[in-house]
């Protein structure tokens, strides 16, 4: 039945159809249309709700939107990689993955680490120099009750507070004598790896001396049994890939510290990786290169997992070594000077690069000054954390420098101050030369230095409460404070006595150059400007009471009318000598030099091992370690013992004048071949003043003796925590060795040496057969 309805305004009529007269096909079509309309309306409503939720997250700053902007951080730390042990520095080392990642990112060519394992790792985790953690001296041995300070925050703790999931895989080497020292108690959610400094790559057996060996592989806080026979580099890579696979993209951002044991000794590469380097004549170098191929493969597997599981586009990959290479075990720092365990460039200039799609300026080489302590504030800032909560940081946020190429905020680096490592091989001849030099520039009439009766190592000073070197050692560490110049207890470097009469003769060395011709053992406090840095002139404005009394006596002993001709002649000689010295100073400097007073208290004891970098300048004092340049063809075949490789041994020769101050312009002389300490004494003084400044902020060295309770035989042949939590701070000061221990060390066994020689020879012959 059809009904027609007339519309208003003369419009066309609407035709209404009676529902009873509709066909089944028309009814079905209408139902489908209505369903589509309902579904579309429902979808729009859901989308509008999600848009409103997202917009509210952006406005309120909820964690959902924050997590989306926080990058995943993958930090890959390599052990004992030298400057010449990567493909883009040396093509003989086959590292195609590392070369590609570095070329597409930012290569850090002015990046510094510490010379040995524990200090570098502690500064990475805490962001503080080792003088502020008590770890100035050597590494943490497996039996030492030592670890990171409990009151100090760590990088994983700050990242976890920022919402990160934190994981560590590989080598720890920061102490484990208490459970509070374990990685899971220092901010990591999970840990899988070794706690000591060196383990076997297959058996995971770690030794700290004869009969002191134990199993060292841990999963969180439990011993990870059943992993023997699996190569550690591959095992650690598999665990890292599992972490990336199981991590939920929408849950939390990820921080993964992959601290590989490679390429630390022992040299144990899989045999299949040695074949590409079969042409290398040196066996140690051949094995070292093969182990590095396993590292390159591990990094390739990690980057593949990042892409596979969707983490790559929002990730930052940081690659770094922990210290320089050891040439005795196949590594190479050429053409840099020195090796692992030294403060020459070969021991502290590290290989590093950053690879990330988030970099604003990629495919470049950065020569900005960077240090391993900078990663703490840089990564916390990149994660959106609060750096202000970490007090006393020595690092800087260098992400704008790395990502955008801006100027580095870092202008100087304190490499270290180790008061327990002193250079105690002075000679009498060097003292005599220094005395003559000081006498040549002394402004006092006829004043000369007394010849020292006994060989003095350092000037004794009263212990200052502010000093950080309150230690107990075999030889007491010196205190490097800057006492007031008016102190009565402070003593000059050497005693002066006033000579007058016919026996006084002009010093023959007065025609030589002024001071610093030979580096003095003790430097003195220069004039400090308002900025806290010493002036270039190094002039002293203060006057000692001793000098005032001498000048007063001189003014009273002027020639009178009734003086004899002989006395007048002697006075004329003294005046002529003084005028000669003044004219000589004017001719050399171009301007009259102010009258110098007798030596004030020392600013720095240069027998202490220390190193600092300020701008282009680098200063070394004490014994910086083995300082030769070791080209590849000079690498030895038979490596030495592991403990000797951690710290450089004393030189076999004894020169007549031992040197303990070096100065280099690293920008113009990166290989440290031209020592400028004699030519630039003003720079030496300024850098010594900076060392004295840092020394005032240092904490005492913590280097306790070995604890017999750590013996693995007491814990099921495993390295595990052995002390109670209440034993923190039980040991004070440093390890004090007795006299008997020294006597035992001096004993030589010719038969033992012969056995050791043939054992090494047999090992070398067996290795050559590979």
From TrEMBL:
It holds the Pfam family Sulfatase. Residues 71-384 form the Sulfatase N-terminal domain. Residues 448-475, 486-502 have a biased composition (Basic residues). Residues 528-538, 547-562 have a biased composition (Polar residues). Residues 1-22, 428-569 are annotated as: Disordered. CDD domains: 4-S (cd16029). Coiled coil: none annotated. Keywords: Calcium, Glycoprotein, Hydrolase, Metal-binding. Its cofactor is Ca(2+). Belongs to the sulfatase family. This is Sulfatase N-terminal domain-containing protein. It comes from Ameca splendens.
